[in-house]
Structures are given as C-alpha cells and as structure tokens.
C-alpha cells in the first residue's frame, strides 16, 4: 500500500489492524486509538480518499490501497486548509479526537463541498469529542468549506 | 483489542470464495466490509479459523434496473446505495435507510450483503428488505438458489444461508412513487436502533420492525388492520402484537412495545397511509 504517498511493503499477521500497522509498523502515531470499537472515530484515516475507522479494518484489507493519515495532510510549514480552520476556530481542547475529526472532515468536504450546519453535524456523527467541544468543530468545518470554495 | 489468530484468504472471484468455503467448511467466515464481523472478532465473540475476504469482488457491487425489479449486488456498500440514482427513483426507502446506517466511516466500508448475512435484528436494512418482500440470491457448490425475505432470517445472527453459500444479489420490487418512512429511535446518532419501524406503501402497506424480536419482523397485525380499513392511528396500536422484544441496557420489553406503537404510528403518518 502507499501511506501518505510513500510505498510501504511489510509482511504482517492477518489479524493486524490497519491502525496498529500505521502506528506500530510504519511509525505514524498521529492516528489515535480511542474506543477501539469503531464508535469514536479517533482512528479515522482515508482509504482511497474516503474516511474509514482504521481500528475496524485489517491491514491486509488495505493491501494495495492509498492511505492518508493526519501526517499526510500538511506539516508545520504548510497546513492543510482543514487543519488551519481547526486552529483558527479553536476546534480542539485536549486534542485527542482532532486527527480523526480532521480526516473525517476532509472526506466529508469531498462528498459535500458546501455543507449546511446539519450536514456537518450528521457527517461527523461517527466522531466523538470527549471534551464535548462540538460547536467550534462545526464552525471550523464550515470555515474550511468556505476557504476551500474561495481557493477554487 | 486484537482478533484471535486466523488464516486470511483473499478471493479473486465468487468461485474462488466458494472453493475456499468448501475447503474449510464451517471453520471459515466470509469477510465483506467487516463492520459487523471485525468488532465481534476483536471482542473474541467470533473466532473463525479462516477469513475468506470477498471485499474485492467488485463485480458484485451494483444497483441495476432489471425491468420489473431492481437487482443489487451483495457487495454494494451503504455509501453506494445512499448515492444511487436508480434507488432514488425506484426504491427511495432503501436509499434513505442506507443513509441511516452507522456513520460515514461505516457506510464507506459496510455492504448490504454483509448486513443481511450477519442477521442482526437491530440492523436497519434487513427490516426494510423484509418490508419490501425482497428476494435473496445465494450461490453454493450446487449452484444458485433464491430465498424469500420471510425465510431468510431464522434467529439471532442466524440466516438460512448455508456455511458454504455466498449471498450474491438482492432483488427488490420497484416502489415508484409509493410513500415510505423509517423511524429509528436511538440515544446517540450513530447507535443501532433501540427500536425501528419502517412503513412502505405501494398499493398495500407493509410494516416491519427493527429490534423487536430475535429477527427483523413484519408487523402483521398492523398490516391486517390497515387492510380492513382501520385508521393509521388505530392500526399502530397493534404494532407490538406477536413480537418478542429483547431486554437490555437500553430498554425493557415493555418500553420497546411502547416505542413500536409510537414509531409505527409516526411511520404510517409520515408515509401518508
């Protein structure tokens, strides 16, 4: 598979989960394990551009796929528009859910480029914020959508 | 949490999957999107020795207009149902309910066939398919057979599919402009329904319930009352007749019976019965 554009080739046990593969084998720890039961969305990554909970997918299922993690969006020098919107709208408190929220947002905006507030709340229903900081997260997603539209 | 060790076989075709099932017998489980099976395996509630991954059989992912009915490939993802123009025009209820399954991430992986074959009475789509009188096509070593919706769901996580059979297609009648409504009661947005009720009108009215027994069930008493000319509000009073609702952390059987009556009334009203 490719992870953030770089080819990765490892033999792993069939039971290795994608999130374990990304964190423990590839060494990308930006993706978090929260509930480990596909409820909280902290482990969300993009598989061929679509959001997926990487704690509920086998690494073997992702063989050959293009994976994008939070590290693949942008670094300190050049943030992704969604990262910038989360920063500017103060859409994080403890930060544990943030990587998953950002990845879910990137996928959502691909599917619904100009979402309403309801679209955003429904679109992020699979991501839980343990600080309950949802209002600013929704604001950030709407701001990111506007920034994305303005850039085009 | 990590599943117990298993052997992983990736099927390149339906025939390859069937050969693997024959070889490994009931030691093997089919893996589609994995949205139901993998959580069970992580909790070690399921410990198959062999996983046969059919997730790449893209030729079983389609929604086709077959003239008098629609044919849906078993490996069609919820996301693809949600965005299908054919469904939007011909079977709006299936499109609408696919959009209610889990959350975006789950809908990007989960498939209609996986949901059906898992046979969970709390799942959304099986009850809709029951209300639609869907027909299921299964392929086994001896060839293909069809199973009617009323025969498929046998018990809790049990279906009429044999261990060496692969569900390949789901056929649903065209609903055209018929009314429909799905009422799902849960506490958190992404949760399973504590109780759900679906009503579909197309000439007659059919009603099915989620999580009111060990399988999805038709609300036969409601349907019969409507056929006799009862008003929706009166027919809905019969919603819990013949059900055996479970008791769990979320609800007692009595509360579920109450929910069934309320949700069926709302579904009938929203479907303009």
Provide the descriptors you would attach to this structure in a database record.
heterodimer; A: Ubiquitin-like (UB roll); DNA polymerase, domain 1; 5-stranded mixed β-sheet; 5 helices; 36% helix; 10% strand; B: 273 residues; alpha+beta; Uridine Diphospho-n-acetylenolpyruvylglucosamine Reductase, domain 2; Uridine Diphospho-n-acetylenolpyruvylglucosamine Reductase, domain 3; Enolase-like, domain 1; 3 domains; 12 helices
Task: Give a written overview of the molecule.
The complex is a heterodimer of chains A (152) and B (273). By secondary structure, chain A is of the alpha+beta class. Chain A has 2 domains: 2-72, Ubiquitin-like (UB roll); 81-151, Orthogonal Bundle (DNA polymerase, domain 1). Chain A contains 5 helices and 5 strands; from the N terminus they run ββαβββαααα. Chain A has helices at 18-25, 81-88, 98-111, 117-123, 134-151, and strands at residues 2-3, 6-7, 44-47, 50-53, 66-68. In chain A, strands 2-1-5-3-4 form a 5-stranded mixed beta sheet, with helices on one face. Chain A is globular, with a radius of gyration of 15 Å. Chain B has 273 residues and is α+β, with helices and mostly antiparallel strands. Chain B has 3 domains: 7-53, Uridine Diphospho-n-acetylenolpyruvylglucosamine Reductase, domain 2 (2-Layer Sandwich), CATH 3.30.43.10; 58-173, Uridine Diphospho-n-acetylenolpyruvylglucosamine Reductase, domain 3 (2-Layer Sandwich); 180-270, CO dehydrogenase flavoprotein, C-terminal domain (Enolase-like, domain 1). Chain B contains 12 helices and 14 strands. A 5-stranded antiparallel beta sheet of chain B has the order 4-5-10-6-7. Chain B has a 4-stranded antiparallel beta sheet with strand order 11-12-13-14, sandwiched between helices. In chain B, helix 5 runs antiparallel to helix 8. The longest helix of chain B is centred in the last third of the chain and has 18 residues, at 253-270. The radius of gyration of chain B is 18 Å and the shape is globular. The termini of chain B are far apart.
């Amino acid at each position: 598979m490719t992870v953030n554009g770089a080819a990765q080739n490892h033999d792993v046990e069939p039971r290795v989960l994608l999130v374990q593969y990304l964190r423990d084998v590839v060494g990308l720890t930006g993706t978090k394990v929260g509930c480990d039961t596909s409820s909280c969305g902290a482990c969300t990554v993009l598989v061929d551009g679509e959001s997926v909970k990487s704690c509920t997918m086998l690494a073997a299922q992702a063989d050959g796929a293009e994976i994008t993690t939070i590290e693949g969006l942008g670094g300190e020098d050049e943030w992704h528009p969604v990262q910038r919107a989360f920063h500017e709208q103060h859409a994080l408190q403890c930060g544990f859910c943030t990587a998953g929220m950002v990845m879910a947002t990137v996928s959502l905006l691909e599917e619904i480029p100009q979402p309403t507030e309801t679209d955003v709340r429904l679109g992020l229903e699979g991501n839980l914020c343990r600080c309950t900081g949802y209002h600013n997260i929704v604001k950030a997603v709407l701001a990111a959508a506007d920034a994305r539209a303005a850039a085009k | 949490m990590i599943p117990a060790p298993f052997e992983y076989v990736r099927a390149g075709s339906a025939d390859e999957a069937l050969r693997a099932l024959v070889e490994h017998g009931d030691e093997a489980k089919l893996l589609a999107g994995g949205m139901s099976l993998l959580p069970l395996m992580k909790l070690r509630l399921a410990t198959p020795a062999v996983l046969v991954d059919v997730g790449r059989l893209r030729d079983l992912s389609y929604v086709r207009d077959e003239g008098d009915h629609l044919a849906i490939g078993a490996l069609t993802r919820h996301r693809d149902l949600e965005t299908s123009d054919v469904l939007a025009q011909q079977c709006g209820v299936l499109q609408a309910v696919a959009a209610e399954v889990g959350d975006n991430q789950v809908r990007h992986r989960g498939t209609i066939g996986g949901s059906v074959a898992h046979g969970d009475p709390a799942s959304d789509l099986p009850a809709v398919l029951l209300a639609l009188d869907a027909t299921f096509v299964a392929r086994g070593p001896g060839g293909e057979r069809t199973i009617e919706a009323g025969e498929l769901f046998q018990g809790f996580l049990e279906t009429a599919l044999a261990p060496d059979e692969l569900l390949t297609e789901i056929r649903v009648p065209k609903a055209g402009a018929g009314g429909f409504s799905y009422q799902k009661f849960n506490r958190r947005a992404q949760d399973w329904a504590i109780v759900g009720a679906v009503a579909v009108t197309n000439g007659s009215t059919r009603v099915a319930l989620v999580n009111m027994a060990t399988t999805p069930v038709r609300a036969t008493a409601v349907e019969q009352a409507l056929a006799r000319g009862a008003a929706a509000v009166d027919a809905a009073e019969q919603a819990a007749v013949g059900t055996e609702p479970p008791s769990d952390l979320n609800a007692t059987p009595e509360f579920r019976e109450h929910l069934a009556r309320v949700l069926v009334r709302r579904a009938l009203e929203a479907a303009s019965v």
